[in-house]
Amino acid sequence: MKAAPTDQLRLLDLQGMDTRLDQLAHRRRTLPESAELERVEARLRELRDLVVAAETERSDVERERAKAETDVAQVRDRARRDQQRLDSGQVTSAKQLSDLQHEIASLARRQSDLEDVELEVMERLESVEERLAGLVAERDRAEAERAEVAARRDAAWSGIDDEAATTADLRGTLAGQVDAKLVALYEKVRADQGGTGAAPLRQRRCMGCMLELTTVDIGRIAAAPEDEVLRCEECDRILVRTPESGL
């Protein structure tokens, strides 16, 4: 392929812009803020699940407390009614009096047992509510942290995207100034060679594969016409001659 030496030199500028675009894309994918955000979001999901579980547990314990309070109230009401009957003097039979006194004593023991159950349930409820309050506070802090990290990531993305857009515009303008066939060859080689399609020959070394050329290769390049498009024998990239080639 033949191409004007100036067009070949422009390939190096084009390569520089493509390299910068690749660097920006890599930086965008690997921002520390993105990894930090993933960590915060994972913790936030965990905390939300824990909050839901604690709220469910609280509801269950609240139902237990309501039942315990009802049980105590029922026994207390019955004991009060029995005591009123006993105190009224309406029960005169010795057996009925004995039975009533026995029932009042049994109800007192039953009430004491139920009040112990109620106290235990209330203590569990207090513990669950404290744990829930701690989880909610931690969840809220995680949500605030997520918003802050996301804002930093978005700001970094914005800066990267702005530079990438400016570079892409300049790249498009420059590509339009280079022979279309040369650009097409460059794009193909760049795709085949992991992002580098053209490299300068500097001090007899291909700056694409960083290998020093042989004496035979140097002789071939020195004898080639200025408009001939050269390729590195080792890496197959377009090799651009410059004043620093050492020919």
TrEMBL record:
Superkingdom in the source lineage: Bacteria
Chain intervals with Basic and acidic residues compositional bias: 58-85
Pfam name, any one: Zn_ribbon_9
Residue stretches making up the C4-type zinc ribbon domain: 205-239
All copies of domain CT398-like coiled coil hairpin, residue ranges: 14-194
InterPro entries, per the entry: CT398_CC_hairpin, Oxidative_Scav/Glycosyltrans, Zf-RING_7
Region entry Disordered, spans: 58-94
Protein name: Uncharacterized protein
High-level lineage: Bacteria, Bacillati, Actinomycetota, Actinomycetes, Motilibacterales
